[in-house]
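Final report, Chapter 2: Outcomes

The project's central promise was a pipeline that accepts a single protein chain and returns its three-dimensional structure in a standardized token representation, suitable for archiving and comparison. That pipeline is now operational. To close this chapter, we reproduce one record exactly as it appears in the project archive, with the input sequence first and the structure output second.
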Amino acid sequence: MKLINWSCLLIAASVVAFASLYAFANRSSVPAETASPRFLSNEVKATGNPSSRYQLDASASKFMAHASRSGLLWFKGHGHHIAVREFTGEAMLDPDSLGNSSLTIAAKSASMEETSDVFTAPQKQIINKELRDIVLLPDQYPEITFRSTQVTGTSTSPGQYDLKITGNLTLLGVTRPITIPTKVSVNDNQIRAQGEFSISRGDFKVKATSAFHGMVRIADRIHFEFDIVGRQ
């Protein structure tokens, strides 16, 4: 009888041990993503694609064309400050591979206007009319666009970058490549890009005219300055 009892105990113990080993083997064979979804989620966040996209915010940005007496516009010895009031676009930044970054901007040419306080309101109206009717022709060319084709640069400190953004600028239906040196900073869900560049009037067939009241005269070099904000 004792022998039978011991045999039963050994059989029961064997069954329990086998069941435990079987359960452990099955648990170990479950794919990692099924066994620990919470851990996987953290891993993806840490090692996934870090690229971020930002929509440009014209209301929080500044995009200007500056000119001295020999610059973009000239009238009675005063310099001009032409603001681009309306534009849209997107910036993409990949901190781990800056070459994957990009920038697109579409500015409304009809939104460009004189802002210098040296001119009276009536003078500004005349300047803006000549700017539209003679120089920018917004009815025919409603947008001035830029699309990047290459981004190079370095990270100067956490969240800070010195970039050279090369791309195609289209103005008055003419497209030419330009390179824009740009300082970029990232803070939480916001990106800020600052820089300046110049273009040749002749390259884009921008008319040099002193028609109407003669308030708009365009020299060969047009200088732009920007401080643009984008948000996720």
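Archive annotation: The helical segments are 2-28, 32-35, 37-47, 121-136.
This record, like all others produced under the grant, will remain available to the consortium after the project formally closes.
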